[in-house]
Amino acid sequence: GNAGAVVITAQHELFGNGIYAFSNGGGNPADISLVGDRINITNNGTAFLNGRNIQFQAATGYQEINIGDTLRSPSGLDILESDLAAISSARSLRIGRADSTSTINLKSSLISSVGNRPQIEILGGDRIVGPDDVENVFRITGLGSGELLNSEVIFSDIKNLSGGSQNDSFEFISNGAIAGVIEGAAGTDTIDYSILNSAVNIDLENQQASRLGNFDTIENIIGSRANNDSIIGSNGDDIFQITDGNNNGRINEGLSFSAIEILVEEVGMIFSASAAYPQKNLQIGPLTVAIVETL
After folding, report:
1. Where are the alpha helices (DSSP H) in 31-158?
2. Which pTM does this prediction carry?
């Protein structure tokens, strides 16, 4: 039958060194929810959790959450690699809550626990920061929802996404959208619309783009399958370089693009091409256009 649920709450720090939760009849593990600003399951080094669905939840919605580190931080809700190893037979591991304004930091050592723990489900927060030392692929499948680390981590009710120290990709799938900011951080980072069938637009002046609020520290943008994706230049004089005949190029020696058919410039454009732009659809603003060379 239904195994029920067990909720353990601490006002500040919750310690545990062995938690079982079963139904009255025994045998069927119950759900376990641990609530506290600091949750220390492995304080004696021999802890374990045995439940059906396990949830870690900060007592306050703004508490920073760190997942998969090896040492506890001075503050914040830390779910260490050793805490993850203490989960013996859970069906799922849920972290956070839908009304959270927390930043959730995924740590590099989280990767080593793949296969030794259930899938991690992040239930809400202001921002997810991907782990360093791995090229993260964020697959955004709904509004504020998606997955990364080969579906080992899934998330929902997230407003902003940030990459780690390597080359990260943010792929939009189906109805995927992010209300806030996508920040690539270090590395060479990509916003990828290539799965979508509908056109997308990128505004460089305001650092805005389709299906997201704003973007920052992004080096590559890949357009959709449609034939009318567009990039609008900044309010300054931009240098558009067309690098081949497949709607690929660079802007201001910084942002690279591919599968973008329409280039729009509101002020002044310096245009150079190594190949003819297939769509021949350059919408020019009111000021000077200088075609400086054909490479």
Report:
1. 81-85
2. 0.85
